[in-house]
Amino acid sequence: MTGTKGASAVSSVKFGGHEARPTAASPAVSVPFTVREHLRHLFLDAKFVAISATLEALHLSRAAALAPDRLRGRGVIFTLHHVRPYDPTTFHASAHLEITPEFLDALIVHVRSLGYEPIALGDVPARLAARDDGPRFVAFTLDDGYRDNLVHALPVFERHAVPFTVFATSGFVTRERTVWWQTLEKTVAAVDELFWDTGDHRLRFGCAGRLAKAMTFRRVVDWMNTVDEDWAISTLDRIAGEHGVSATAVVDQEVMNPAELRRLAASPLATIGAHTWSHVNLRRVSHDRLADEIERGSAEIADLLGSRPTVFAYPYGSHASISVREFAAARPFDLAVTTEPGTLSQAHLDRLGALPRISVNGHYQRVEWVSVLMSGLPFRLIPHHPELD
Q1: Structural domains of the chain, ranges and CATH numbers in brackets
Q2: Residue 193: beta bridge partners?
Q3: Cα dihedral angle (307, 267, 130, 324), rounded to 10 degrees?
Q4: CA gap 42, 3 in Å, rounded
């Protein structure tokens, strides 16, 4: 870390490894939140308000309802992660990744009322290629392989006879890999002070209160995005253990085990897709690691279920984690999905390895707002990367 001794002198944070770790008696250096971090928090709050206001305005003005067909396209693919009851007493650093079963139920009813037909993800290419004027379609997908997909989402899909796809990260399912963002969230939630040994300093981060927890969570995420991901996860798992949180227990709690994945796959409505072995940012690894991540993830799912996945979701899925090289590596699949936002048109038949999806975001659980997103209009107004490199 830079700066001189004392909390007020710490101007930036650099997390380190575990060689030459200080002893438990080493004095901790308190790291205050910077003005920039406070401004970032205010910006994110303002962004949430602005997006909500924009979606509401487009709904109330009927601008989205009147959006032209070329923006709506032929259909949409939804991205979900967790589907579970909301616990307001818990720290939710990743609240955008979870919706309630009640909202999923309401969303299915709503999209059908709009004339959309729920279809299996594997049927998307045929529907895009069809020249008839049939109904628009919607495909539901859920990333990572969380247990609540079985416990809470499956009953909703079965009640409405809606097909869905779960993209399972095989290393999570086999417990060879931990889910770092869940480990971090539970660690920050569990403590009022987070201590981090860097090798030459012992840092102390205040985590008392939701604001401090949220800012600490973002601070660690920023660090993880600048260093080797495998090493960062190993370091985070160790730090979590020092604070009484077992990263292995977290993945046991959150992700389906092999038997549960088989139970889910047994549903005639379910498709299990590949999501790599470790959920690493593919753009930041070597060519050999890229190929191994995809092959190993597919092979392990095949070993568990008896057949290889035919569809694939890129981990993280944004322009920061995928590009031309990653698209080429995913060619063996019938199709692959990103997390870049957008609706689907016939033109996407030429880009089946980079299909956009619409995130069903936990911060915006109103069916009217999802309707606005399905119109395609917001993607012309909100900056994003419509065409990946």
Answers
A1: 7-32+180-249 (no CATH), 73-176+255-376 (3.20.20.370)
A2: 206
A3: -50
A4: 26
The pLDDT tens digits for 315-356 are 999 999 999 999 999 999 999 999 999 999 999 999 999 999
d(CA 158, CA 366): 22
Compute the distance between CA of residue 353 and CA of residue 345 in angstroms, rounded to an integer: 14
Pick from 322, 309, 382, 377: which is nearest to 351 by CA? Answer: 322
Closest CA to 75 of 383, 337, 320: 337
Which distant-in-sequence residues (6+ apart) come within 8 Å of 336 by Cβ? 311, 312, 313, 314, 327, 330, 352, 353, 354, 355
Gap between the Cα atoms of 114 and 59, Å rounded: 14
- pLDDT of amino acid 134: 85
Q: Mean pLDDT over all residues of the chain? A: 91
Give the C-alpha separation, 84 to 216, whole Å: 25
Positions in the chain whose pLDDT score sits under 70: 1-26, 382-389
Q: What string of DSSP letters covers 217-246?
A: HHHHHHHHTTS-HHHHHHHHHHHHHHTT--
Structure confidence by residue, pLDDT tens digits, 52-102: 999 999 999 999 999 999 999 999 999 999 999 999 989 999 999 999 999
Residues with Cβ within 8 Å of residue 46, at least 6 apart in sequence: none
